[in-house]
Design goal:
Blueprint lengths: L12 H24 L3 H22 L5 H24 L5 H23 L10 H28 L4 H22 L3 H24 L11 H33 L1
Helix pairs in contact: 1-2, 1-3, 1-7, 1-8, 2-3, 3-5, 4-5, 5-6, 5-7, 6-7
Length: 254
């Protein structure tokens, strides 16, 4: 299948940069809306879930990868994934250990069903609605799982945001080394890195935004969310122009 008809982007440096910034925005934006704007976790969850559904409906109507639509969904999923975990902890009293285990199992089930149905977990062939449905289900669980894992290490285990970010970042670096140097399976490497970029991004978001007296740098949720969203918009604009040029080149070659 021609890569131009794949509904998700190629895995490049831009992909990982935007993904990590999106995970950071998911953490800071959820806190900003729920606490700074005083909407509360429940109201924020309803609003953001509605926006996510709307963004997904647009995404599923597309026949190929469109940067604006795709990354909008990623940002929305990041926020909603954070809110799911926060609601379970703050409103229902579920422990971070339990949430981490449950979402790990849920993600494993999604992968098992996906593989049983499609015989592959590769993101290089997401060109049907069913495959994309599995893809987004997996993405949602990685964000919820990553939020719980990040909070578990940084807060419950009291290691702090900086050490938590360093730990998850180091594991991601090891996975990258295993892939490039020791030929770790590409699909396995991708999903391991994707899962871990969530707690890494969440820890970085908390490190940058939380007050100094709780281990953060005190830049605030507004500032960090604004800076990272601005950077994401700029990169998406660049990728959109790049894709347009690729489509024009492909059309002229036919």
């Amino acid at each position: 299948m021609n890569k131009l008809f794949n509904r998700v982007p190629e895995i490049t440096l831009f992909f990982w940069v935007i993904k990590i910034m999106a995970t950071t925005v998911g953490e800071t934006a959820a806190d900003f809306l729920a606490f700074t704007m005083k909407l509360g976790l429940i109201n924020t969850s309803w609003v953001m879930s509605g926006l996510l559904v709307f963004a997904l409906l647009i995404q599923f109507k597309l026949k190929r990868y469109v940067p604006v639509s795709y990354w909008l969904v990623v940002v929305m999923v990041s926020v909603v994934g954070t809110l799911i975990t926060d609601n379970l902890v703050d409103n229902l009293g579920v422990s971070l250990v339990t949430i981490t285990v449950v979402f790990s199992i849920a993600l494993a089930v999604v992968f098992a069903l996906w593989y049983a149905s499609e015989k592959t977990l590769s993101i290089h062939s997401i060109y049907t609605a069913r495959r994309e449905l599995f893809y987004w289900a997996a993405i949602l669980f990685t964000f919820a799982l990553g939020t719980a894992a990040g909070d578990l290490v940084a807060e419950h285990m009291a290691l702090g945001y900086a050490i938590s970010a360093l730990m998850f970042g180091s594991v991601i670096a090891v996975i990258a080394l295993a892939y490039y140097r020791f030929k770790l399976n590409a699909v396995l490497a991708f999903w391991l890195a994707y899962i871990l970029t969530r707690p890494f991004g969440a820890s970085m978001g908390d490190l940058l935004s939380q007050p100094v007296n709780v281990g953060g740098l005190g830049f605030g949720t507004i500032g960090i969310s604004g800076v990272f969203l601005g950077a994401i918009v700029i990169l998406i604009a660049y990728l959109s122009m790049q894709q347009k040029q690729q489509l024009l080149t492909a059309s002229s070659a036919e």
